């Protein structure tokens, strides 16, 4: 972990955007299946990985194509697919357990 840096200006807003999309989905859907949560988690992580890879390639002035390829290149493992799969699994396993406990809890 390298702490805060130039990449924080790309990664933080992108993660915030993904969080807003997730909260909007949960606000307008009362019941959502674990499979749909799996898909949401997978595609949210895929969007995050692709967008941040391309944006940081632009910021650090290297090839966007190389950035996207390296996301899926195994060294020592393909970070992109592993990140998407783990995020999807966590979304489908954790959200159904935690979210019902948070309904009606308001922070002032």
Please describe what this structure looks like.
The chain is mainly alpha-helical and 108 residues long. The protein is built from 4 helices and no strands. The chain has helices at 8-28, 34-59, 64-72, 79-102. Helix 2 packs across helix 3 (64-72) and helix 2 crosses helix 4 (79-102). The longest helix has 26 residues, at 34-59. The chain is globular and about 45 Å long.
Q: Compute the CA-based radius of gyration.
A: 16 Å
What is the mean pLDDT?
84
Largest sheet: none
Mass-distribution shape: globular
Instruction: Quickly count the helices.
Output: 4
Residues in β-strands, percent: under 5%
Question: Would you report the number of β strands?
Answer: 0
Percent helix, as a range, is over 70%
Give the termini separation.
33 Å
Helices and strands, in N-to-C order? HHHH
Q: Could you say which structural class the secondary elements and strand pairing correspond to?
A: mainly alpha
Uncertain stretches of 5 or more adjacent residues:
none
